[in-house]
Write a structure and sequence with these properties.
With about 110 residues, this protein is mainly beta. The chain contains no helices and eight strands. A four-stranded antiparallel β-sheet has the order 1-8-5-6, with no helix packed on it. A four-stranded antiparallel β-sheet has the order 2-3-4-7, with no helix packed on it. It starts with a strand and ends with a strand.
Length: about 110
């Protein structure tokens, strides 16, 4: 089985942070998402955006990362095949400029 911790980042793509305390080990875990466009007032179609995840407190556990996005304001998320690294890049287009991006951290449980 696996335990899932998620982190969302909205269309304005600013730094976001999530903290969780593992109820079994009392270990504090932290996920910070940074964006390559942070601080920019305007982002144009064709701009490459990279989202970066900084994970703290995950050194002693096995986990899998999984990026996904929502086209409907966060009601449903579509998993991006092969997007399992701490960073994820995409090119802004007229369709995805309003997506909500999410990173799931799936903890492997014994």
């Amino acid at each position: 089985t696996s335990e899932e911790e998620s982190h969302l980042i909205g269309e304005d793509a600013v730094a976001e942070e999530t903290e969780a305390i593992d109820e079994f080990t009392n270990v504090e875990r932290k996920i910070v998402i940074l964006s390559s466009i942070e601080g920019q007032d305007t982002v144009y179609v064709g701009t490459e955006v990279t989202l970066y995840a900084e994970l703290t407190g995950y050194d002693d556990v096995e986990y899998t990362l999984r990026w996904s996005y929502s086209e409907d304001g966060g009601n449903t998320f579509i998993i991006i095949d092969g997007a399992n690294n701490p960073s994820f890049s995409y090119i802004v287009n007229k369709t995805n400029f309003g997506y909500i991006w999410k990173l799931d951290v799936l903890l492997d449980q014994e």
